[in-house]
Amino acid sequence: MKDVKNEAKKFWEEKEAERGGKVTFHTFATFHGRSSDRQLTNGGLIYIIDDRIYFEDFERENWLIKLISRKQKYEKTEFIIKIKEISLARIVSRNSALNCIAGFCESLETKELSAFTKLFAKPMVQIMMKNGSSLFFDIMRANDFIKVL
Fold first, then answer.
1. Which residues of the chain have pLDDT under 70?
2. What is the three-state SS of 79-105?
């Protein structure tokens, strides 16, 4: 267990050196896509350093997929969101998020979940940018993430 903690500490120290700042928040997340784009399921890390949100995924080891599709090579998904370019971050229903990703509704038409509806609907985090587009995530500590923003 001590090795795992040391590896994690080393990982975050490397990210801080690479990005030039202190990590103020980090958790696991799944990126599901952007508004009017294609749906994805990229699991990885979401973290905040200074005035930027970083997301990066990691290659999953799935021997069955490797056997079936040998030609398909892993491509890392990594991107940065400048916090000053965000107009809104909220928790919406999964159905609403997937409809927006598929282009069936606009970013402002997604349904924010109330405390009551959170009991019945699967939540996703919507990050709406000032340009009107949105990114959708399943974030492990969603409420904490939104508070930090």
1. 1, 60-72, 74
2. EEEEHHHEEEEEEEEHHHHHHHHHCCC
